[in-house]
Design goal:
Layout: H1 8-27, H2 34-41, H3 45-51, H4 55-73, H5 84-96, H6 102-117, H7 119-145, H8 154-176, H9 181-199
Helix pairs in contact: 1-2, 1-4, 1-6, 2-3, 4-7, 5-9, 6-7, 7-8, 8-9
Length: 212
C-alpha cells in the first residue's frame, strides 16, 4: 500500500510549530508574539490563528511534540541476547539525546518557567513523562520474567532509575551546559552498575558449591 502523503493543512501546522520552536527559543515565551511566529513561518496571522487559537495553545503543541519525540526514543524492547548494561545504557542515551539538539535545549529552558506558570500544562508534561517511564518498566518486567533481574515493582524501579539519570546527567547539562564526554560515560556506567547491583538476579549456590 503506498504511503499517504501529509495533507497541506498538516504540513502548514507542522511549519507553524517549527517556527514557534525557533521563536520561543530566540525571544523567550513572554517576548514571542503570534505576529513573530507568523513571520517566521511565512504565513499570515489569520492562518496561524486558524490552527492555534492562542499562543498558549501553540506552546502546548510545541511541548507535546517535544515530549512525543523524547518518549519515542525510549521505546526500547528487551533483548535477551544483549547485556543488561548495554540495554540500560541505551535508555540513558535515549534520554540524553534531547540535549544534542540546541533548539530543544533552548526550548526546554524557556519551558521551565511556563510550566511553573501553567499547572495544567505541567500536569500534562508529567503525564507524558510517565509514558516514557512505562517503557522502561516494561523492559524491567521482561528482564525479570527472563530470570536476569529481580524487580518486584517495575514501575517504581523505573521512576527511580529515571530520577538518577535526571539528577546526575540530564538536568545539570540542560541547565549548565554539556559535560565532557568522559564524565558522561563515567556517570552513565556508575548509574547502570548501581541499579544492577540492586536488581540483578544472581544464581544461588547449594551447600555443596554447585549453582542452583
Amino acid at each position: 500500500m503506498p504511503t499517504r502523503k501529509p495533507r497541506s493543512t498538516q504540513l502548514k501546522r507542522q511549519s507553524i510549530i517549527d517556527a514557534a520552536i525557533v521563536a520561543f527559543q530566540t525571544y523567550g515565551y513572554d517576548n514571542t508574539s503570534m505576529d513573530r511566529i507568523a513571520e517566521q513561518a511565512g504565513a499570515s496571522k489569520r492562518t496561524v490563528y486558524n490552527h492555534f487559537p492562542s499562543k498558549d495553545v501553540l506552546f502546548e503543541a510545541v511541548v507535546d511534540r517535544f515530549l512525543s519525540e523524547s518518549t519515542a526514543l525510549k521505546q526500547i524492547p528487551y533483548d535477551p541476547h544483549r547485556t543488561l548494561e548495554v540495554q540500560l545504557s541505551a535508555f540513558v542515551d535515549a534520554k540524553l539525546s534531547v540535549l544534542q539538539h540546541p533548539a530543544w535545549v533552548g526550548l526546554l529552558r524557556v519551558g521551565i518557567s511556563a510550566l511553573f506558570r501553567d499547572p495544567a500544562l505541567a500536569r500534562r508534561a508529567a503525564e507524558q513523562a510517565e509514558v516514557g517511564a512505562r517503557y522502561l518498566a516494561l523492559w524491567l518486567r521482561d528482564a525479570t520474567d527472563d530470570g536476569r533481574l529481580d524487580v518486584a515493582d517495575p514501575e517504581l524501579a523505573a521512576q527511580l532509575f529515571w530520577g538518577m539519570v535526571s539528577g546526575a546527567l540530564f538536568w545539570p547539562q540542560a541547565l549548565e551546559g554539556t559535560m565532557p564526554a568522559h564524565t558522561v560515560a563515567s556517570l552513565r556506567q556508575e548509574l547502570v552498575a548501581t541499579f544492577l547491583a540492586r536488581h540483578r538476579r544472581h544464581a544461588s549456590r547449594r551447600v555443596d558449591g554447585t549453582v542452583q
